[in-house]
Amino acid sequence: MPATVGDRTATRHSAPSGSRTATLTLARFLLRQDRVKLPAWIVGLGLLVVYIGAALPELAPSEQDLAAAVPLLEQPVGRMFAGPAFGLDAPTYERFFAAGYLLYLFLLAALMNIMLVVRHTRLEEQTGRAELIRANVVGRDAPLTAALLVAVLADIAAAIVVTALAVGNGFALTGSLLVGAATGATGLAFAGVTAVTVQLSESSRTAAGWAGVVVGVAFALRGLGDMAEVGGSALSWTSPFGWASQTAPYVHDRWWPLLLLLGLGIVGALLGFVLQNKRDLGAGLISARRGAATASRFLGTPLGLAWRLQRGGLAGWAASIVALGCVDGAFADVIVESAADLPEAVRQMFGAEQLLTGYLAFLAIFGGYLTAAYVVFAAQVLRAEETSGRAGALLATPVSRSAWAGSHLLVIGFGAAVILLLTGVGTGAAVAGSLGDWQTFGDVVASHLNMIPAVLLVLGLCAALYGWVPGWLPAIGWAVVALAVFVGNFADLLDLPEWVRALSPLSHPADMPVESFDVLPALWLAVLALAGAGIGLAGLRQRQIGVR
Amino acid sequence: MNVIECAGLVKTFGTIRALDGLDMTVARGEVHGFLGPNGAGKSTTMRVLLGLLKADGGTVRLFGSDPWHDAVALHRRLAYVPGDVELWPKLTGGEAIDVFARLRGGVNRRKRDELCERFDLDPTKKARTYSKGNRQKVALIAALASDVELLLLDEPTAGLDPLMELVFQQAIREARDTGTTVLLSSHILAQVEVLADRISIVRQGRIVESGSLRELRHMTRITVEAEVTGSPERLAAMPGVHDLRQTDGQVRFEVDGSRVGDVLRELAGLGVRSIVAHPPTLEQLLMSHYGDDLSARGATTGVK
């Protein structure tokens, strides 16, 4: 053998050959791919901190104003969607910031990490790009390691930015450091969770969906735990969001709950590696079964196919939303009892009766947010069908574009209505069971059904986006859901201008059961929803298919 | 009557001119080979013919109507097989076949089952477990099992093995025998050579040659290899003779199609011991249009 060949072999063999070979090269590549996305997320987190810091002194110039706003956060519904409300007996801007908005920093950090890990692991495998990468001198564990490494870097950057801007708001240094660290640590915990969920299914959407379910459950558990008591109860400690909120920045400044978050991240990552080594590249852990050799008669129609493609997502969302509604409904008695503990001045504002109807109205709009999220999620199927080329193949048959897209819209709209009906019935039954009184049942169901036109308007908007600017569907669709949640939760707290509130479709229906049903907004919303669908289908008819 | 008529078709994507004045006609009942390298505009043409893309210039007629405006009506009469078949991961292959066939207006169950048998496809497996070749079989079976007048096949066999390639050729012949028109884009030259009645060669968005294989061969050179006793000096000087090389009584040259008779008479006087002459293969036809590209590329990448 010529000497040169021998030398080359030797060089090759002396190169690292472990399961993490090329991790750093890959990590640099991922950072290059994410050079816009990650900074945008981190800037978004920072903007929230800056905005709240600037808005609070505007809204509540004096200590009295601040104290007057405290019940909004301290009453049970406020605790449910904003956190355990530490230290509000002596409110300051920084404590108000921590009690009212911190949870949303944690939520955003979790979403950033879920999307990051899914994007760089399962999506790569699903598209086959991972195969190209792994055929090079790249270790088996390198892609996941690189993705997690980038997640760590992003979370450290987020922690630094959040801390710096919180200090910039004039908030205390220790508390601000803790806020930043808790944001980053929550992100890491969910990076670990996602490292596990991406192993389960072959589809990146399902992997993200499973991680989303974990976020939802964690958020709900913490919500119920915090609702039970000021400062949280034992139930709060079952949730990663609970751990992050229990750091109680600017009040108790506890550091040790962060260990729980880091622990979850590490355990998740390790479990992810173990599971990954048990499966083939591109495969899920849940293996494929055989199916029917022929299609049913219904499947051979545009509507039947749309139903088949949508039904899995619909079932998952419906089950989660209904379950959440039932659990929330079961806490109705806690609300009624809490009225007794409220200070006299507050009780005049929120009597037991008003507290309960307020809570029921909140549950209806909460169901509305989640159903709107389902609608945006389900509408992406149209885009996925197009970018994969399947829509092109379908539209090469004598199926019109309107029939194809219209079938999907019909299925999604029907699904949204069913979700709200079932959630209303489930929540109503749970409320009745908790109070031992079925008087409110009809109100709860009606208040959920009252959300249908508003949710359909979100669908109409998605249809219009898909017809004319399909590339913008995910961004604008999710932004509308985020806006609806933001307006619903913060409009009063931040004294948002009327036009911003009006932008949220869910702000328009009557606030049932606090107010009685109003047919006018329902009618307008339905008409606009139909118009959106019509505009979308018209756009789809005139544009080209499969052009990016 | 022509099933497909394109005249001066232009399609741009940003600054890229994917189709640059493409002219093509496909007559009823013929198998038309559509040849060209990657990126020449074959798939873009197919998608304009399907009305998925809108041409920026020129005219396109499918069965005499505009595919952009009458897409749905036209699609009743055709079936399409894309080069890169994507299926719904959760549906089985059999379900996907039925979906396509039913949307086209009904499935011929006997024919479908027979095709599954011939193409050796298990229709009970979920599409996500299929290889590229198996996904392609699904689309092919769905197309062939439909009762249509036109098959638009965009590199339909890129993932099939040689045995399946033969099954495919047989199936296309059967389709032609029942009067189906086929537009078959490919860069598998042997396949087109075997199946096509007429061929269009596309390059950079234009048709550079069109006609039957026989007509195309007239336009290019025939290769002659002979063993002769005399000196081939005079042969080299004849018009129409190119690239003459000789070694030890062996002579090899190319001759223009129009000059073959003259050259053979001259050759006969040289004492021929053996002779081999062959028409240009499709490779040579293509090379005569792409040769400059290849040599240009060879200059930059050929040197290691």
- Lateral strand order in the biggest sheet of chain B: 5-6-7-3-8-9
Distance between the termini of chain B: 53 Å
- Work out the helix count of chain B: 11
Q: Profile the largest sheet of chain A.
A: none
The share of residues in helices of chain B is 25-40%
**Shape-level CATH architecture of the largest domain in chain B:** 3-Layer(aba) Sandwich
Which structural class is indicated by helix and strand composition of chain B? alpha/beta
Portion in beta strands of chain A: under 5%
CATH superfamily of the largest domain in chain B: P-loop containing nucleotide triphosphate hydrolases
- Strand share of the residues of chain B? 25-35%
- In whole angstroms, the N-to-C terminal distance of chain A is 53 Å
Low-confidence parts of chain B: 298-304
Explain how this protein is built.
The complex is a heterodimer of chains A (548) and B (304). Chain A is mostly helical and 548 residues long. Chain A has two domains: 25-284, no CATH class; 298-548, no CATH class. Chain A has helices spanning 3-14, 23-33, 37-59, 63-74, 76-82, 93-120, 122-127, 129-134, 142-168, 173-200, 204-228, 240-245, 257-276, 302-329, 332-341, 344-349, 352-387, 390-395, 401-435, 441-449, 452-468, 473-490, 498-503, 519-542. The radius of gyration of chain A is 25 Å and the shape is globular. Chain B is 36% helix and 30% strand. Chain B has two domains: 2-216, Rossmann fold; 221-279, Alpha-Beta Plaits (2-Layer Sandwich). Chain B has 304 residues and is an alpha/beta fold. In chain B, 41% of the residues are buried. In chain B, a hairpin with a 2-residue loop joins strand 1 (2-13) and strand 2. Mean pLDDT of chain B is 86; it is low at 298-304. The N and C termini of chain B lie far apart (53 Å). Chain B is elongated, with a radius of gyration of 23 Å. Chain A binds chain B through residues 202-203, 288-295, 299-302, 305, 308-309, 312, 388-390, 392-400, 544-547, and chain B through 13, 47, 50, 52-54, 71-73, 75-76, 78-80, 82, 84-92, 94-105, 107, 123-126, 128-129, 139, 152.
